[in-house]
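Contributing new records

If you add data, match the layout below exactly. Sequence lines come first and carry their own label; structure lines follow with theirs. Keep one chain per record. Anything else will be rejected by the validation script.
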Amino acid sequence: MNLLQRYRNPIMAAALLIASLAGALMVFGPPTGLLPCLQRGPSPVEQLPSGRLGTAELILLGARQEVENQTRYDDSYAAIDYPGGDVDSDVGACTDVVIRAFRNAGIDLQLLIHEDMREHFDRYPQLWGMSEPDQNIDHRRIPNQMRFFERHAESVRLEVEGRSGKWQYGDVVYWRFPDGRQHCGIISDRTNRRGIPLVIHNAGVTREQDCLFRWEIIGHFRYLPD
């Protein structure tokens, strides 16, 4: 028997339903995916004047554009321009969040990774049966992104949950899902109630979520040429 059947007064039934939902939120907390919605208004970086936006800030803002765009997940191979190439703007993989975020800061990972692979192809993962680099896809593959950052970025010590001081917005994080697949995202300047930063990532549709410690972290990089 539901509330409307139990109580003939619809106002009383509605009030009891709202109260029960509020109680559930107090016990269990809001769904993880809704946490960013609780932080209204501009983020700290969005409140900065344009003259104070450095590389990390521009990377973050580029990633947040993907959230606003509601970019759908699609990791299909596509022939794209070089340099500065991109797949259709309404789709992309998790790695495309990173690529587009960096491009907003004037950093073309397609160009950088392709050039590094042309010079040092044997130092990159050999997982796809290729004999030479492919400018269309190499930068969109997580193992290649990670190897590039291992070679050219600051590799920040991995941390366990509760020790979030080393994470800075604009950093790149890489995870391993329980089924072995790899994933990545950009650290946000927004945090949860414990001060742990949210992450901008695409695992279906690009979201800004409280998920930093949801999966096994396998990489944490900071690439700030300036």
